[in-house]
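> call design_seq(struct)
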């Protein structure tokens, strides 16, 4: 099994809307994120992935911690560090690479964390590896909600 280090970012705009990516080929939802490049700082990785997958520059406002998820069918051990971030500047179209485009990545904005959480909780996937990925990112959305509620 290969260990891959990655970042996951719960991204909010000034209106409290949150972005989620629909991975249409596999029928699951995820937050912006992906692999950390060699020599890259975790925060810089998170910002780069948000720019690529959500088309936005962002400011990291909090760390959400680390999760480790085994994806046996992909022979992958995912080690992800999560963040909460706010959009800075203008929203632009995402820049999905060939891998992401082949999987049917589609950017969606939800009116609130609750709306995104509800959407993902209602989304039924049966393939165990996909269940694990969606569960991982749902966890980050819930952690972001707890963090933001504690700030009020």
């Amino acid at each position: 099994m290969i260990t891959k280090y990655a970042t996951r970012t719960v991204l909010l705009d000034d209106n409290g809307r949150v972005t989620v990516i629909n991975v249409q080929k596999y029928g699951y939802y995820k937050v912006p994120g992906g692999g950390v490049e060699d020599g890259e700082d975790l925060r810089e990785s998170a910002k780069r992935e948000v720019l690529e997958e959500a088309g936005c520059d962002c400011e990291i406002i909090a760390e959400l911690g680390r999760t480790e998820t085994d994806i046996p069918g992909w022979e992958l051990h995912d080690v992800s560090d999560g963040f909460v971030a706010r959009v800075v500047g203008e929203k632009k179209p995402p820049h999905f690479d060939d891998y992401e485009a082949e999987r049917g990545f589609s950017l969606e904005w939800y009116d609130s964390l609750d709306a995104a959480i509800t959407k993902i909780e209602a989304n039924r996937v049966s393939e165990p590896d996909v269940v694990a990925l969606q569960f991982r990112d749902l966890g980050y959305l819930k952690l972001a909600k707890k963090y933001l509620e504690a700030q009020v």
